[in-house]
């Protein structure tokens, strides 16, 4: 199923379908729906959560940073299957809150999807993927501090969303844009 995800709108629609099935949606359920083998959609998912109003929930940015850290380490190590600890997979959010966040993101997703396409593929190849993973590690390590700096987790979410989308769409230009978002995030934290 995750192999079919080619853009942000498809990912949001897929997650919205599982949000209508139950009252609370666990991270395990979302990971199963997105696919355990696909790092791009999972990174895109985490970034989307951080870019959405869900990042305002106390502890959500830090929880997502653990997820980003695990994605990055597994990307660096060359793993083919994604793994998460059970205690993290059991974390959940109300389906209503998740669905509202998805609805809030859908207009932006449609706009973004018009512009992404395969280009500068060197930046999303094997070497590029390692660079993306290192940037993800840096963002993950800085995310707990983002709980204290307004809007920094949201900007980091845009960086992670852009990185995930770059892996899904094989769009290296998005990697460059993500580096810009990451620089803004760290600058915002440093000067705040």
Strand order of the largest sheet: 1-2
Overall pLDDT confidence: 84
Domain count: the total is 1
Overall number of strands: 2
The protein's oligomeric status is single chain
Structural class, by secondary structure, is mainly alpha
Q: What's the alpha carbon Rg, rounded to whole Å?
A: 15 Å
What helical percentage do the residues reach? 55-70%
Give the N-to-C terminal Cα separation.
42 Å
Taking the sheet with the most strands, its summary is: 2 strands, antiparallel
Tally of contiguous helical segments: 9
Question: Could you give the topology of this structure?
Answer:
Elements: H1 8-19, E1 24-26, H2 27-34, H3 39-51, H4 60-77, H5 86-89, E2 92-94, H6 95-113, H7 126-146, H8 152-169, H9 172-191
Notes on the protein architecture:
Helix content is about 70%, strand content about 5%. α4 (about 60-75) packs antiparallel against α7 (about 125-145) and α7 (about 125-145) packs parallel to α9 (about 170-190). The protein has one domain (about 1-190). By secondary structure, the protein is mainly alpha-helical. The radius of gyration is 15 Å and the shape is globular. The protein starts with 7 loop residues before the first helix and ends with a helix.
Which short descriptors sum up this protein?
mainly alpha, 192 residues, single chain
């Amino acid at each position: 199923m995750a192999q079919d995800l080619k853009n942000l709108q498809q990912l949001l629609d897929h997650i919205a379908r599982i949000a209508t099935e139950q009252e609370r949606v666990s991270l395990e359920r979302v990971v199963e729906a997105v696919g355990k083998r696909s790092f791009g959609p999972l990174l895109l998912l985490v970034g989307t959560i951080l870019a959405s109003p869900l990042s305002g929930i106390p502890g959500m940015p830090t929880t997502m940073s653990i997820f980003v850290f695990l994605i990055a380490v597994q990307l660096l190590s060359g793993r083919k299957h994604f793994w998460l600890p059970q205690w993290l997979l059991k974390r959940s959010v109300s389906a209503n809150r998740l669905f509202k966040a998805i609805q809030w993101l859908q207009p932006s997703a449609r706009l973004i999807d018009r512009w992404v396409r395969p280009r500068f593929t060197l930046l999303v190849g094997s070497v590029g993927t390692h660079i993306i993973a290192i940037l993800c590690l840096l963002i993950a390590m800085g995310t707990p501090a983002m709980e204290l700096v307004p809007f920094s987790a949201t900007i980091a979410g845009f960086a992670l969303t852009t990185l995930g989308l770059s892996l899904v769409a094989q769009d290296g230009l998005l990697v460059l844009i993500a580096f810009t978002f990451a620089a803004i995030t760290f600058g915002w934290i440093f000067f705040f």
